[in-house]
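FIELD: query
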Amino acid sequence: MEPVIERTLRRGRETLAAVNDVERLYLRDWMDVVFIYAISGFVGTLHETCWTLLSKGVFEDRSGSILSPFNYVYGLGALAIFFALRGLRKGHQVFIVGALLGGVLEYSMSVIQQYLLGSRSWDYSQLPLNIGGRTTVPFMLFWGLLCFVIVRWILPLMLHVVHAIDDDHRRTIAVILLAWIAVDYCVTLPAIFLYAQRADGFSGGGWFADVINTVFNDAFMRRHFPNMRV
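FIELD: result
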């Protein structure tokens, strides 16, 4: 039997090899997409919540969702980073493309939310070097650095851990996560849309809209989305 210390060291070397091997950035199946979205979204929520607590001294739910802890900006952003940057090998390429990609994503998500749902979750108009108040050059540089770290270390480690789970358990967890995310989208998006409609003096018709308007009323939405403008 392999000694415990040798086995631990061997697994440690395998993990380090996985983290430093960009060739491991591949999708085994659809379940990897779910795991990347969920893990990245959850980490994003923790990051945003802790940052708000440290910088403002207040606790705010920064998930951007109602029924899940998965921040959609970070979840979708991680998937975009994965598919756009996994083929790049040079560090400066990852940084430059990542900075541009981060800026485009942040800008486009802001536009889509404003014109599709009638609300805005962030406004950088008062910050220097902002682009339409939707992103800034310093933030884009941060996105470039973050993309480099994500592509070089975080995503390989994440997939290495996910692929270590046996297929049956991985499938069960992925199905549960996917159902959770889908239900959350089906509630969060209508709630934000109807919140903006109420701000404009309109109220949606139908039983579903009535339920959403009652359960997720203005007081709830202001408390849950304190930075959202409608």
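FIELD: remark
The two ends are 64 Å apart (CA to CA).
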